Each structure stands twice: as structure tokens, then as C-alpha cells.
Amino acid sequence: MELRHLRQFVTIAETGSYRRAAEVLFIAQPALTVSIQKLEHEVGAKLFFRSAKGAELTAAGHALLDDARRTLFHADQALRTVRLVAHGELGKLRLGFVGSATYNLLPLTIPPFRARYPNIEVSLLEDSTEGLLNLLRMNQIDAALVRGPLAQDPHLESWVIEEDSFVLAVNQAHRFAHRKSIRLKDCGTDPFIMYSPVHVPALNSVALSLCAKAGFAPHIYQEAVQVQTLVSLVASGLGVALVPGVSQTYSNPHVRFIQLKDPDAQAAISLSLVTHRDTNCVPVQRLRESFKR
Q1: How many CB atoms lie within 10 A of CB 235?
Q2: FRET pair for 286, CA 20 to 30 Å: which of 121, 154, 187, 232?
């Protein structure tokens, strides 16, 4: 029994005519008649009888009709599912992200991505950059949005999605809180809230390098992993911190963000999409394409 035979059978049943069914199916009526005869031979019963009204279902035909419709429906669904999966429009996407990606990048990209690909189930997981890279290496996520610059990894591939500059976060009571811009060396004696070298090595390295180029080694009072945590510690008056400029999107009433005059602070950091170099997860490709728009 072939699906085309069932489709032809249902079409005749719904139109009540071999002639009209042949027109709908774009085949010759004699060929349609032969197909139905083959189907009747397959099921071992007559499915139609001729009457003044046209082609009417026999009792066997009535018994087959509902199952034939269900079979065609599920066959069509299966074909649609395969095509959606093949084109990356159906499936699961396990996406990791650093907390600062929620300031701007995720709100601007995830809603339109989900609207465009409603059949892709997006599972989000927050972690540090180093934690997300390890999860990628262990195949526990499909892609990650992490802070860079990133070291080369033969197993991973990355694309810069968003560039950003460092700004200086200070408490509202800080002596420079009223300033719009500053040279980093002017805060060289302040206690610094710094990124953990274990969990956020890239940002730690860039921040320390920036301080070194400004002519001082920072006095590190506290270390943290997430940008939000650094800002919160600054709000608590524990020190100053170098944070991505996008952090200003969600202002804290106890924190002031000051632009840095240092050229090296400009475009010093980035948010990158990282995936397995040999990934076969098509939704990842669709996500990457959405960042290009």
C-alpha cells in the first residue's frame, strides 16, 4: 500500500467523483482508476461503487477513510518535521551566556530568534566564560556567548558579535563620581574589584594589562566572576572596577560610570559566540545567522 494510493482514495471520497479527483490530483482519469484498483486489490475489498451521484464509498471504503486520513496526516507531519530539522528550524539549542550578555545582546536577539524559529526550543544557561568553555568542550551545551578576547582552541570556533570598551565604575561617594571622563592612572591608588583569574582569565588579563599600561599595579581588594557582582561590590563601597561599557544599560543608583581617556580601553573587550568547530547542530548556524542581521 502506497501513500499516493491513499491520497488518491481520500480525494475521490471527498470529491465524490473520479473525474474531479483526477483534475485535483493532476493525473489522467484512467491512471487514477488503475491506482484505486491496485489499492482495492491490496486491501481485498471494493472501496467505491458507481451511482447516479458519482463515486460513493462502500462499507469497506467508509471503514478505511478515517484511518487513511490519519495516515496521510502523520506522514505529512513526519515529512514536515524532517524538513524543519534539516533546515535547522526544529530542535533544541542549548545556549550558555555570561551575565553581561543580558544587558543588551540577549534581549535584542533571542526574542526575534524565537519568533523566527518557534519550533526551536532554546535552553539558556548562565555561567562564567571559563565555565561555559568547559561545558562546550564536554558537549553539555551547543554554543555560548562569552567575554573575550579569547585564546585559540583547536576544538572551538568563535565569532565576535559585539565589541565594547572598558569604563570605570565608582561608588557615588567617590571623589571622581562627578567626572564624565578620567585617565585610569588617576585611580591608581584606589582598591580595585578585579575579575577572578581562574574563572574569568581573559578579562582579568586585559584589565591588569590596561592598568600596567597606565603605569601602576592595582591593589586588588576583592575578586569576582560576573560583571553584575563587580558593580554590586562597587555599590557597596569596596573599591572601583573596570567593567564593560554596556554595564551602564542597567544603572545602579549607588554607582557612577566614568569614560576612560586611555586609548587602550577602547574596544578592548568583546562578546563572542563560541561553538564546537565541527558542530552538526543546525540551530547553532541559524543563531549565528541571526546575529548577522
Answers
A1: 15
A2: 154
Out of 53-67, 82-96, 137-151, 208-222, which region has the weakest mean confidence (pLDDT)? Answer: 82-96
User: What is the tens place of the pLDDT at every residue in 56-107?
Assistant: 899 998 889 988 889 888 877 777 767 766 666 667 889 999 888 888 888 8
Rounded to an integer, what is the distance from CA 194 to the centroid of its chain? 30
pLDDT of the residue at 181: 94
Q: Which residues contact 198 (CB under 8 A, 6 or more apart)?
A: 130
| Among candidate residues 265, 221, 212, the one with its CA nearest the CA of residue 243 | 265
* Distance from C-alpha of 56 to C-alpha of 158, rounded to nearest angstrom: 63
Least-confidence region, from 6-10, 75-79, 195-199: 75-79
Asked whether the beta carbons of 198 and 130 are under 8 A apart, the reply is yes
Q: Kindly list the structural domains of the chain, giving each domain's residue range(s) and its CATH number in brackets, ordered by start.
A: 3-86 (1.10.10.10), 91-162+271-292 (3.40.190.10), 166-266 (3.40.190.10)
Cell numbers for 107, please give them: 534581549
Torsion, CA 238, CA 242, CA 243, CA 249, rounded to 10: 80
